[in-house]
Write a structure and sequence with these properties.
Elements (H helix, E strand, L loop, with lengths): L10 E12 L8 E12 L3 E5 L6 H8 L7 E6 L2 E2 L9 E4 L11 H11 L4 H14 L15 H14 L4 E5 L7 H18 L2 E6 L2 H7 L2 E5 L6 E6 L14 H24 L9
Parallel strand pairs: 3-8, 3-9, 6-7, 7-8
Antiparallel strand pairs: 1-2, 1-4, 4-5, 9-10
Helix pairs in contact: 2-3, 3-4, 6-7
The protein binds adenosine-5'-triphosphate and magnesium ion (MG).
Magnesium ion binds next to helix 1.
């Protein structure tokens, strides 16, 4: 399904007919991961990719981030082709595992990211501390990553993704390793940041509640090969408060996502099982 906005200036990311096959077609190890995905994402929009394990969410995010070229199709960011090359001036990544360098302190890790982006040294501390404050981690600036809990490391990781100047943030299950309460609080922080910074965010999650709470639109992806099954509009402005979760519409949207995913999850489980013996 293609959502095309008439005004191209408004589009941050344009994914056109992206297909990804790993391995040579016909070979036993060949996998068709993505099948003809098209999606336009507007500037300042929060889009969630929701789908069963192995449906190609990370693959799509990595292609958008320029980590590699798709087998066919194209991605443009601000009208420029992403040609299998990262664009650190435009796109920042936050992964599931913290990617902090363990031999540098928290603030030094921020400095490296900001230096890499070409931001003047005079701005480093201000930017880093503002982002750390936003996730309640300012007093840990001089700690080393292994002096922090998994949850704290991931909050720092998220803050580092925010402190750089990129208009686009790609987040691959950033809260997956965290407990439910911490996830909810970070979700609120992220909604607040979205309202303040106007960043465009593409976010991968397995949590239905997280997807509904955070997204402007949810792209529900089918079992492998990943295709966009449907797009759900959430239509509630950011920042969102936890009260949103008490609205009947929240449960309706969550149930709608689950109904769409249930069959896809069963299809995935069938793919991941050993073949059943015949004639038994
Ligand atoms: N580099 C690779 N080489 C070969 N196959 C790959 C490669 N990367 C991903 N795949 C395959 O492509 C499919 C999609 O993988 P991907 O990691 O994108 O799924 P996902 O939706 O992110 O799954 P999860 O929810 O478990 O993270 C899977 O079948 C995976 O095994
Ligand atoms: Mg993944």
């Amino acid at each position: 399904m293609t959502q095309v906005d008439k005004n191209n200036d408004d589009i941050a990311i344009s994914i056109k007919n992206v297909t990804q096959r790993f391995g040579d077609e016909g070979s036993p190890e060949s996998v068709l991961a993505l099948d003809n995905i098209s999606l336009d994402i507007r500037k300042g929009e929060f889009v969630c990719l929701l789908g069963p394990s192995g449906c190609g969410k990370s693959t799509l995010l990595n292609i958008v981030g320029g980590l590699f070229r798709p087998s066919s199709g194209s991605v443009t960011v601000d009208g420029r082709l992403v040609d299998g090359k990262p664009h650190p001036d435009k796109i920042a990544f936050v992964f599931q595992e913290s990617t902090l360098f363990p031999w540098y302190t928290v603030i030094e890790n921020f400095h490296i990211a900001l230096k890499f982006q070409g931001i003047p040294k005079s701005e480093w501390d201000d930017r880093a501390m503002t982002a750390l404050k936003a996730v309640g981690m300012a007093s840990f600036a001089k700690h080393y990553p292994d002096q922090l809990s998994v949850g704290m490391r991931q909050r720092v990781n998220m803050a580092r993704g925010i402190c750089v100047k990129t208009g686009i943030l790609l987040m691959d299950e950033p809260f997956a390793a965290l407990d439910e309460q911490t996830r909810m609080v970070l979700g609120e922080d992220l909604s607040q940041l979205l309202a303040e910074t106007g960043k465009t965010i593409v976010f991968v999650t397995h949590s239905l509640a997280e997807a509904v709470f955070l997204s402007d639109r949810i792209a529900v992806i089918s079992a492998r090969p990943g295709k966009i099954k449907t797009i759900i509009d959430v239509k509630t402005p950011h920042p969102r408060s936890p009260d949103f979760m008490l609205e009947p519409r929240f449960s309706e949207l969550r149930n709608e996502c689950y109904a769409l995913l249930r069959d896809e999850i069963r299809a995935t489980m069938a793919l991941q099982r050993d073949p059943q013996p015949t004639g038994a």
